[in-house]
Amino acid sequence: MASNQQWNRAGLPAWTYRSERLLSVEAKRVFANHWHVVGHVNDIPASGDWLTFDLLGERALVIRGRDNEVRAFHNTCRHRGSRLVEGESGHCRGALACPFHAWVYDLDGQLKRPAQPDNFPELDPREWGLKGIELEIWRGFMFIRFEAGPQPSVAAMMQRHEAELHPYPLESLQPTDGIYSSPVTPVNWKAMVDVDNECYHCPTIHRGLSDLYGGRYEEGPWIEGTHRIRGPFNESEPRHELNQRYRALVDQHPEPFAELPRAWLYIGMFPVSVLMFYPESVGFYRSIPIDATHSVMTGATYRYDGESESMRDARALSLEIDDAVMIEDKRACELHYEANASQYWQQAILGDSEKAVREHHDMLRALIPELNAPAEPISFESNTGGS
Length: 387
Ligand code: FES
Ligand SMILES: [Fe+2]
Known about the structure:
Elements: H1 20-32, E1 36-40, E2 49-55, E3 58-64, E4 70-74, E5 89-91, E6 95-97, E7 104-106, E8 111-113, E9 132-138, E10 141-145, H2 154-158, H3 162-165, E11 174-175, E12 180-184, H4 189-196, H5 202-205, H6 207-212, E13 218-219, E14 226-232, H7 241-250, E15 263-269, E16 273-277, E17 281-291, E18 294-303, H8 309-337, H9 355-367
Antiparallel strand pairs: 1-10, 2-3, 2-5, 3-4, 4-9, 6-7, 7-8, 9-10, 11-18, 12-18, 13-14, 14-15, 15-16, 16-17, 17-18
């Protein structure tokens, strides 16, 4: 029976998926001033441990100080702007030394000393310390934003999920393989998020995943910046051998993990972060733009503290299932994205089960009213700030 739900079913216009000018506006109005998950405090357990997060030219460095505090800074030396640390994670002993001219910073960001101090007038250690970035730790997960914006705190946004997430022991999660990075190209970041915001494609694209869950798939609306998707395992026995082995292992999880729901639960946070809660692991991923037509999926998986052998084996299998899903989703992104190169393709029509795609678009439209224009505007100036 045809849907008689009344809502605007138009997707974003095609030009919005290929415009470099738009991306520079998105960098300011969508990415710089909204929260992004960057890792877990247990990724950096010791003083001097650090990890980085790069986003459209901005660079964050999250580091644990001598006082055990975790702080976030711009990964930018105050002398001539060099990266202070290179790579995704690491450890520094006692102080951060810039690789360019060797200015040295304390772990709390203060400038310890410029190299050859006689070169400079007296430099105040605080004034010339690393510039801080806003950091919030929610149940062990670290979120940053480069500048204040319209979102409330992460805790406030996650509050409506608190009861459901309560049974998951998140604070004591342990890292597994570090942060992965998987290019998705040629694809605009919004095409990745669009694919992520609907499971209408699941029966065709994700045959294996549909065999694991799908019968009682629950997808809520985006509400105040978060989105909930839950796939309880199908009641029927899986047909795929990988799913059979995985389900059998989940049945062996010891207490208290045996109490965790037999479901894969996903909580999305606008604009591009998703946290995943499984019976044997927890993880996150993000759809990160490189430029208008190149993107990258980055994320990490964590194990529960005290995991059993069956949980470790189940984690390996859920990772295998997810790797297949990621490859399938890359194909979905490409199928979706390719049309935007054609001058005859205008925009998508969305079904009821793709309503979350529209809702994400609506949040973007609220920040960038020009997204309503059928063709790329000449100027991006508007009352929400110029570009
Ligand atoms: S750029 Fe860092 S010391 Fe010169
Ligand atoms: Fe998918």
